[in-house]
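User: My collaborator sent over this chain with a note saying "see what the structure looks like." That's all I know about it. Can you take a look?
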Amino acid sequence: MMGPAHSLSGAAAWLGVGAAATAAGHTMPWPVLVVGALITAGAALAPDLDHKSATISRAFGPVSRGFCEIVERLSNAVYKATRGSGDPRRGGGHRTLTHTWLWAVLTGAGTSAAAITGGRWAVLAILFVHLVLAVEGLLWRAARMSSDVLVWLLGATSAWILAGVLDKPGNGSDWLFSAPGQEYLWLGLPIVLGALVHDIGDALTVSGCPLLWPIPLGRRLWYPIGPPKVMRFRAGSWVELKVLMPAFMVLGAVGAAAALNFI
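Assistant: Without extra context I'll predict from the sequence alone. Here is the result:
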């Protein structure tokens, strides 16, 4: 999938989680619903850190481009070192390490650990990075026409405001984890969800996605999971633009309404 579809699917997934929480009698505070949806929208771009031409590579200028090149080389090295006898030889690292359930869990756990050990500045940094990515994904046309500095300023300002809202009693800094010192421990959840939604989206495309690595399937550790090939589509095709993206918008709207008890 392309960046905008990934971000939309991520936001819709978190809003769906909010709807499920409400149905279960554990209504999510509205700031958590909003911030979680934005973080998931941004995190849904993160697995493409292994692709130097992806949306995330442009988000932070030379810094993100350089980081993407490093991750691509690391992913390629991991693939070569761990590929099974049935896995093909390949020359790049795209859709390998960062497109697995293990990567999703580790990045989510790392985010939670950073949030509770790094204090407010770590929380602000997490929010800033993912809000910038959310803008790049959800408002991609405006982001492309604007300067990077304006997008970064929007991300920084929004991060500061939203962190202030979450910090107020009852607004969700201690959502799910209420013990002293566990504020913002939940921030890892939208990171994991965003990465997994990205991987599932990529699994629907022609190339599939090695979501289950390092669990072996026969002679392959990097088996590209996906539906039957007749049901797959090419990234950026009309299926993605005309069917899936509108569907994500509708599902997100329904999820938000249900999460806020409007329906």
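A starting point for your reply to your collaborator: The longest helix spans residues 238-259.
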